[in-house]
Amino acid sequence: MPSTSLLRAASRGSTTFSRAAARPATRPLMVRAAFSTSLPRPSDHAEESFEDFTTRFEKEFESVQDVFELQRNLNNAFAYDLVPSTSVIAAALKAARRVNDFATAVRIFEGVKAKVENKGQYDQYLTELKSLREELGVPLKEDLYPEVK
Questions:
Q1: Distances from the Cα of 16 to the Cαs of 21, 26, 73, in angstroms?
Q2: Whole-model pTM?
Q3: Cellular component per GO (predicted)?
Q4: CB 83, CB 115: distance < 8 Å
């Protein structure tokens, strides 16, 4: 009849029973998440040349149908450790205007400004894309919000 005495203790609200049940019987196992026991796999991805990168993103921006795809492609293009070419930027600008996303069109140049090494490179992008910017009606952030000094 040990089971009935256990039930009586549980029904009385005995604190010794609840403390004993809450205490773990064994020590928890240590998880070794910092070290991997599997061997690293060789990468299946080949190195992509700058020309292949450019053609891939030009095609992706040409097939953009909505704002989500546009912003996802922009995030992917700017995530690499390089500055996208002017043809990729032009395709992105056209895609932004095609899906009627004015704010993203303006912010594309902010991304270029953040990626280039110096102001001279940024100015080269601006001069090369000036006619397209004027055609599409995309101003720069500097034109919209001049800095007060």
A1: 9, 19, 61
A2: 0.67
A3: mitochondrial inner membrane; respiratory chain complex IV
A4: yes
